[in-house]
Amino acid sequence: MLLLKAVAWACLLFITGFMSRPQPTEIDVVLTKRANADPIKTSELAKLMRYMYDETARIKPLIASSKRIGSFPKKFASVHTATPTDPAEHNETFKIFADNYLNATQTLYAKPSTASYNLVVQSCLNCHQTHCLGPLSRIKALMLPPS
Fold first, then answer.
1. Labelling 75: which of 2, 38, 58, 103 has CA 20 to 30 A away?
2. What is the SS3 string spanning the chain?
3. pTM score, whole prediction
4. What is the pLDDT of residue 31?
């Protein structure tokens, strides 16, 4: 009888503990799905653009305070060869936008200024507004006020 009471209490405690756990919110579910997402699905071009974004964000405060930004990241030049998520996106229009970006970026690293920095950001916006819709609000946030 004592064993039966102990088992009953253990079951009751287990069920009570299980039922009192907070249920995941919609945001928790989305974040879990993102965390468990297959990284193989991210294309080379998407990874490269994230790197480009991170590099642009990194140098933003340096440009704003007229500090050295380092040399042109050679990895940027692979924008023409990186495999996109959708191969159809890698067309002549993309090549023109990519060339504009590379030219603006090379100018920035050769002669850093707020104006040349904003031209780089604008080249990203130009492409992502018309050719390959992208994270426009994140890109716009990279702009510096004119000096």
1. 38
2. CHHHHHHHHHHHHHHHHHHCCCCCCHHHHHHHHHHCCCHHHCCHHHHHHHHHHHHHHHHHHHHHCCCCCCCCCHHHHHHHCCCCCCHHHCCHHHHHHHHHHHHHHHHHHHCCCHHHHHHHHHHHHHHHHHCCCCCHHHHHCCCCCCC
3. 0.71
4. 47
Cβ 77 vs Cβ 98: under 8 Å: no
Q: Is 90 left (phi over 0), alpha (psi -120 to 50) or beta?
A: beta
Structural domain spans, the chain: 90-147
Which two structure tokens, joined as six digits, stand for 64?
């704003």
pLDDT digits (tens, 9 = 90+) for 37-49: 555 579 999 999 9
d(CA 8, CA 83): 60
Residue with tokens 């039966």: 4
State pLDDT tens for residues 94-139: 999 999 999 999 999 999 999 999 999 999 999 999 888 878 999 9
Mean pLDDT, rounded, for 83-103: 93
Query: Do 45 and 82 touch, CB atoms closer than 8 A?
Result: yes
Distance CA 29, CA 58 (A): 31
